[in-house]
Design brief:
The chain is α/β, with parallel strands linked by helices. Helix 14 (381-388) packs antiparallel against helix 15 and helix 23 packs antiparallel against helix 24 (639-649).
Length: 1443
């Protein structure tokens, strides 16, 4: 009998830990195609049968899994070959190892044995190679997809039919997983998933087995994208697939089979950026050729997958069909030089992620989500009738209409007494799966019968919502159902019910939701973002007084939930709210609109509502609006009667909202706007035609679009953004717009034809070629279509790729069509992430064409902050269609394009700066983390520059100024005079055309030219310079500089970026040392440096002008000297590139191109953004010996003469200018240690580069000297010790008089003190004590009390210092400070009391009369002081333990 899982000697946690540790160090290797290797042996039927199955009734040829029983040695050798080729994992030979797949061969009874033996064989191979090599090898238990599918019918005539059930798959996978694990598999691999529903059954089975056996192991999941559409066979996109299986918490997730590496790239990249798990990729050896073979060689496949690794996409890589041990060996060697992908810590924080065939992301800023409510037999009479009549085809049309009308989630309910809910739910959901236009959205499986819910869950491949569960049957039932829902991979709606019934009031609604939340999150381990609360929308205005607050109770409970239960969403069925006014639809719809307007503002995320029928909040008749508001907020006790009377006064209009035709009397512009806002298409064609015929206002058909139609859509956009319109209403408006534009298109085409006739050739007449696309994941295209029409009417050739366009199609089309511009559009929030991805791909591939961004969710800020940094070529946000022509024209205008983009670039840079400055809590990486994400250059592909012709120092004295004149950048010169032209007259020489500053700019320029000629001819200014080149290598963040013997002569220290980048920004955290070959690479590299000046003679010239009181002349001389110095730096850098270092000898650039840094290499300077520390100039000066050409450094490390420039030369093609940004304390301390200087000195020089809160620590040298760079824990310990000391001294000092008096009465010790307290309390005036004469103790009291006071104050200072140093906002520290402070005040008061009453205490009988009360007063403050000090000590002790 084989061992059970629990008998297995291996520790799964150890296996997981080992794999995880290796994955963090390197890319791990999977094996290749088992089937490929078996085929090479050309086995026949008898080979498959072996001795055991020679009489088997069915053919076994092709059943590769049976070979583990009939040809175990062959299988063992294949595993061993892959291990020896470098594989870390081999897959068991069990791809078809389920009873479902084995049934084709009549071997289903052998499935457990097949899996058990397969795992044993693979394990034996793993152990043998592990022992031989010392490298741990692992076995992945392969669980294939079976030969049946849950999501697709095998019968075209019966789309609802399935030839396998979820439960059958679970049973089959459970048996397979059990056999694999008991045979020794380390990992379970659910692979080659072409139907996600099948994989969900596998994950369900695995989790159930783990729970039953109390055992776990790592689980890997690998899907299969069947073609370049990026979808599985069952229709899911890569992103939707990831969401659907994420509940299984796979350690690794990725793709295999079907495609070659090149074809798989965009999809594995989608996996990489959309999962926190490790990624796995094992593609085929290319696409199959005509004969079914695979053509990719080991070398070509290695090259392709090495590019994946270089770009940080991989954690595990291997091969599938067509790959051999030779392929795996080449791949292993190729990727070994690259670091593994670092999975993100979190992904889409605070987002609820759902899926149908496509992903749905509901984030903090997602607009209200409409759940389609018409597929509910309890809510739609028509749907109920169709289901009862068996007319499922017509019922499907209802679902399709809802999705078309903007439902983002589709609710399905089959709860009706005369229906078999399980059967109806199963059939309808299976039918929905056959309709891509419906199944693209997530489903909401809605039932009060949990068996019906499970029936729906078993048919859905996506991640859906369960509506609903509650605690009305008790906590145990609630937990069990929640656990099951989590296991199926769904989100859940929780009703505000418990054992006592339905919650109606605000407090009870929240209490039940809070209790449910804690159970789900803490006990069931539910993702908080997958929890939706329905706090019960109950009917108001019923005539029962307590019902009047139901509306406000729901809204305020919603607010409580959103503020206190992180991640949770709020939903509800809105129709309940107005049920008391049923039959009066106009009133009900107004009530719904008012309710939603306020509920959404207070946090309601989604709802079951027919949003397309709602009036716009601002359009509700004022009297009706007021009554609805009063009812909602329970402001008018007679509100119900008033609204009823109002409804009755409306007569038949109350039953249905009727739009009067008064608006038809307005002018045509107002009529068009009204039609768009209301979504009325009845009159839009005739109104559009009327506007078109007004040639005076609209001479061209295009003007109608750019005028009244765009104005109307702008209002729609504003209302949508303000939450006063919902998506279905916006879609209705867009359809009206489309109809209007459709009417105008023939007229615009005719106009275009006439223009073409006038200009001749059609193609030559185009102003440019523009590719437009709605990005992948988005189906909205109305706005894009209008942009296309507008551009086409302005003589642009527009290629519209439609909706849901994958990145690769956009870029491929742009290349094929030689596009001049690419335009991306999107309406929903996830489109923004896809746009970022497209921009990154454009940069990676090397596109240079402008990128336009547009759509409802896009913004100028988002484009500037998130998209533009990913693409170095022009990236511009286009507000609406009316702006598109202007932007495109400017981008394609050869003369003005550069100026336009300069203006946009400056504008976007300013927006980014403002954005990051506005962030209250900018996040930073630790310096260790930042170094892990440094720029990793492949030094074999991008070797260092050649050796410079000069090693050491080369000086240039009295440099010919005439050589520098062509290199002068005149723009900064005009900036000195504050002369700035406006686009298109920004730069030199266009500034002279500017109407405002042009004449003055020309005058100043002419004066400069005259003076420049004088300077050159008379040699009044002299230019000197020096360059130096040395061998160098990087070591961490530093650059070691060597002499010709390879000895380190200086070290240039670097600073690295630490400000956390955007989630989708995978760019490295740069430091200048990244651009120099590391010492460990063995590559010899070089670094250059320079200092130049054109400032010798400036002071002498200025003195002449000073004597003439000519300030204009002084400024002119200094400005020209600065320009000449910069020109010297530019000219010398060109010589360095082409001659002295010679790494870019073929360079041919104009001066204008030089100013725009179009050359290879950079010349950053210390004190500037890439290295903000000016002290690095000291090292440069020691190497350059720049003083010998008259360039010196002042005390503040400024260069003298002022008209001087210096910097470092970096030659590598990957080198670029960057800003370190703000720096964290850990880097400052590390940097100081590397430079061997005090932190306070570093802080002084880097004050402007410190992150907020850091300057107050290191800026104070006094604090550093006093505390000797103590860390935070020492502050707390010192504060603790001092406060405890204060407590002890205070206790002694303030208790001593009582102790003394007790001694005088014969009471000893602590007991005596207690008795004395009682004695004093009971004292009365008839008794008199003989007080001893003790004048000394009063002085002792004062002395010790003062010591205690100062010690407590010292503790207080230490704690305040702790707060200011570490910027700690921990409330525990605030409490410590507060109690210590209060204690100090009490001590101060007690001292004052003792001092004032000391003389009375020293006299016999002083406690008689009022003196007794004073004595009690002092005693009370003594106790309070002790308690305060004790409290401070205890709190800080807690903080120490906590730290």
């Amino acid at each position: 009998m084989p061992p059970t899982i629990s008998d297995s000697p291996k520790s799964s946690e150890t296996v997981r830990d080992k794999i995880q540790s290796t994955l963090q160090e390197r890319i791990m290797i999977f094996d290749g195609g088992m089937g490929t290797m078996i085929q090479k042996h050309r086995l026949e039927e008898e080979d498959f049968r072996g001795q055991e199955f020679k009489d088997h009734l069915k053919s076994l040829k092709g059943n590769n899994d049976i070979l583990v029983l009939t040809q175990p040695k062959l299988v063992f050798e294949i595993h061993k070959d892959y291990f020896e080729a470098g594989a870390d994992f081999v897959e068991t030979n069990t791809f078809s190892g389920t009873k479902i797949a084995q049934a084709d061969y009549g071997t289903e009874h052998l499935t457990y044995r097949l899996n058990y033996e397969a795992a044993k064989i693979a394990k034996r191979a793993a152990e043998e190679v592990t022992n031989k090599t010392g490298i741990q090898k692992y076995v992945a238990g392969a669980m294939g997809p079976t030969n049946r599918t849950l999501s697709i019918s095998p019968s075209v005539e019966k789309p609802e039919f399935r030839n396998v059930t979820f439960d059958e798959l679970v049973e089959a996978y459970t048996e397979q997983a059990k056999g694999l694990l008991e045979g020794g598999a380390d990992v379970l691999l659910v692979e080659t998933i072409f139907d996600t529903a099948n994989s969900k059954a596998a994950l369900f089975a695995i989790e159930e087995l783990f729970r039953k056996e109390k055992f776990t192991c790592p689980v890997f999941v690998s899907g299969t994208i069947v073609d370049k559409s990026g979808r599985t066979l069952s229709g899911q996109t890569t992103e939707a697939f990831l969401i659907s299986v994420s509940h299984g918490n796979p350690m690794c997730i990725g793709l295999n089979c079907a495609l070659g590496a090149n074809e798989m790239r965009p999809f594995i990249e989608a996996v990489s950026k959309n999962t926190t798990a490790y990624t796995i990729c094992y593609p085929n050896a290319g696409l199959p050729n005509t004969f079914g073979d695979y053509d990719e060689t080991p070398e070509s496949m290695c090259e392709q997958l090495s590019n994946f690794a270089r770009d940080g996409l991989l954690n595990i890589v291997g091969g599938c069909c067509g790959t051999t041990p030779e392929h795996i060996k080449a791949i292993a060697e190729g990727v070994s030089q690259f670091k593994p992908r670092v999975p993100p810590d979190e992904l889409r924080k605070d987002f609820m992620m759902l899926s149908g065939l496509e992903p749905t992301y509901l984030g903090p800023y997602t607009n209200f989500v409409n759940i389609g409510e018409r597929c509910n037999v309890a809510g739609s009479r028509k749907f109920a009738r169709l289901i009862k009549d068996g007319d499922y085809e017509e019922a499907l049309s209802i679902a399709k209409t809802q999705v078309e009308n903007g439902a983002q989630i589709l609710d399905i309910n089959m709860d009706e007494g005369m229906l078999d809910g399980v059967a109806c739910m199963t059939k309808f959901v299976n039918l929905v799966a056959s309709e891509p236009e419906i199944s693209k959205v997530p489903l909401c499986i809605d039932s009060s019968n949990f068996a019906v819910i499970e029936a729906g869950l078993k048919c859905t491949q996506g991640k859906c919502i369960v509506n609903s569960i509650s605690m009305k049957e008790g906590e145990e039932d609630f937990v069990e159902k929640a656990r099951k829902i989590k296991q199926y991979g769904a989100a859940v709606v929780v009703m505000a019910f418990d054992e006592e019934g339905q919650a109606t009031g605000r407090q009870r609604k929240f209490e039940i939701c809070q209790r449910s939340y804690r159970i789900l999150v803490d006990k069931v381990k539910f993702n908080p973002n997958d929890i939706i609360f329905d706090p019960n929308i109950l009917t108001i205005a019923t005539g029962i007084e307590e019902h009047n607050s139901y509306g406000v109770d729901f809204i305020m409970a919603t607010k409580d939930i959103k503020e206190n239960l992180p991640g949770a969403r709020v939903s509800g069925g809105v129709s309940n709210f107005s049920f008391s006014f049923r039959g009066m639809e106009a009133v009900r719809e107004a009530m719904h609109s008012v309710f939603l307007y306020h509920a959404i503002k207070n946090g309601m995320d989604m709802g079951i509502v027919n949003a397309g029928c709602l009036p716009v909040y601002d359009d509700i008749e004022p009297k009706l609006l007021e009554m609805c508001e009063n009812l909602l907020w329970n402001k008018d006790p007679d509100g119900t009667e008033k609204l009823l009377a109002y409804a009755q006064s409306m007569g038949k209009d109350a039953k249905k909202a009727v739009v009067s035709d008064e608006w038809r009397n307005k002018n045509v512009e107002e009529r068009l706007e009204f039609s768009l806002i209301k979504g009325i298409d009845k009159f839009v064609v005739e109104d559009t035609e009327e506007a078109r015929q007004n040639q005076e206002l609209y001479p061209r058909p295009l003007n109608v679009i750019e005028g009244p139609l765009m104005k109307g859509m702008s209002v729609v956009g504003d209302l949508f953004g303000a939450g006063k319109m919902f998506l279905p209403q916006v879609i209705k408006s867009a359809r009206v717009m489309k109809k209007a534009v459709g009417h105008l298109i023939p007229f615009m085409e005719k106009e275009k034809e006439e223009r073409m006739k006038r200009t001749g050739n059609v193609e030559s007449g185009y102003s440019g070629v523009i590719v437009l696309a709605t990005v992948k994941g988005d189906v909205h295209d109305i706005g894009k279509n209008i942009v296309g029409v507008v551009l086409a009417c302005n003589n642009f050739k527009v290629i519209d790729l439609g909706v849901m366009t994958p990145c690769e199609k956009i870029l491929q089309t742009a290349m094929e069509e030689n596009a001049d511009i690419i335009g991306l559009s999107g309406l929903i929030t996830p489109s923004l992430d896809e746009m970022i991805y497209v921009a990154k791909e454009m940069e990676r591939i090397g596109f240079k064409v402008p990128l336009l961004i547009g759509g409802a969710t896009t913004s100028k800020t988002h484009t500037a902050v998130k998209i533009a940094p990913q693409y170095k070529s022009p990236t511009v946000h286009v507000l609406d269609a009316s702006k598109s022509v202007v932007v495109c024209s400017q981008l394609l205008d050869e003369e003005n394009r550069e100026d336009y983009m300069e203006e946009v670039t400056e504008d976007y840079a300013e927006i980014r700066t403002d954005h990051y400055n506005s962030l209250k809590d900018r996040k930073y990486l630790s310096i260790e983390k930042a170094r892990e994400k440094k720029l990793n250059i492949d030094w074999s592909a991008y070797p260092p520059a050649p050796e410079p012709s000069v090693i050491g120092v080369k000086r240039f004295e009295n440099y010919d100024l005439s050589r520098l004149v062509p290199y002068i950048d005149w723009k900064p010169f005009f900036d000195v005079w504050q002369l700035r032209g406006k686009y298109p007259n920004r730069g030199y020489p266009k500034i002279f055309k500017d109407k405002t500053v042009g004449p003055e700019a020309k005058r100043v320029y002419n004066d400069a030219q005259n003076l420049l000629k004088t300077i050159i001819t008379t040699n009044k200014l002299q230019a000197h310079g020096v360059v130096a080149f040395f061998p160098a290598n990087s070591v961490g963040d530093d650059i070691e500089v060597y002499n010709e013997n390879g000895e380190v002569i200086e070290v240039l220290r670097g600073l690295r970026q630490q400000a956390e980048k955007e989630a989708l920004d995978k760019s490295p955290y740069l430091c200048l040392s990244d651009f120099v070959a590391p010492k460990s690479s063995g590559k010899k590299d070089y670094i250059g440096m320079f200092a130049v000046t054109a400032g010798h003679g400036v002071d002498k010239m200025c003195k002449v002008y000073e004597e003439k009181y000519d300030d204009y002349g002084i400024i002119m001389v200094k400005a020209l000297a600065d320009r000449l110095a910069e020109a010297f730096a530019e000219e010398l850098h060109e010589r360095v590139r082409k001659e002295i270092w010679g790494y870019s000898r073929e360079e041919l650039l104009e001066a204008n191109d030089l100013h725009k840094i179009k050359y290879q290499g950079i010349r950053p300077a210390p004190g500037y953004p890439s290295q903000p520390d000016h002290t690095e100039k000291d090292i440069m000066w020691r190497l350059l010996k720049a003083d010998k050409v008259g360039i010196t450094l002042t005390e503040s490390l400024a260069m003298f003469p002022a008209a001087s420039v210096s910097g470092l030369y970096f030659a590598h093609p990957k080198s670029e200018y960057f800003a370190t940004g703000k720096l964290q304390k850990d880097q400052i301390v590390d940097y100081s240690a590397r430079k061997s200087v005090d932190v306070s000195v570093t802080e002084k020089w880097l004050s402007s580069a410190l992150a907020k809160g850091l300057a107050s620590f290191t800026a104070s040298e006094v604090v550093n000297a006093l505390l000797n760079k103590m860390d935070a824990s020492k502050f707390i310990r010192i504060g603790l010790v001092l406060t405890i000391c204060a407590f002890i001294f205070q206790l002694i000092g303030l208790a001593s008089p009582y102790w003394t008096f007790a001694e005088s009465e014969g009471y000893k010790g602590c007991l005596g003190l207690w008795k004395m307290c009682v004695y004093v309390k009971a004292f009365d005036t008839s008794t008199c004590i003989d007080w001893p004469e003790i004048p000394e103790w009063l002085e002792a009291v004062r002395a010790t009390s003062i010591i205690g006071l100062f010690l407590v104050l010292a503790a207080l200072v230490m704690l305040i210092l702790r707060m200011s140093v570490m910027k700690d906002r921990n409330p525990v520290l605030f409490a410590a400070i507060g109690t210590t402070f209060v204690g100090a005040i009490f001590i101060l008061i007690s001292i004052a009391v003792y001092a004032s009453k000391g003389d009375e205490f020293s006299k016999k009988g002083a406690l008689i009369e009022g003196a007794s009360a004073d004595y009690h007063f002092a005693f009370a403050f003594c106790i309070l002081a002790m308690v305060a000090a004790l409290g401070a000590g205890a709190i800080m002790m807690i903080e120490v333990v906590k730290a």
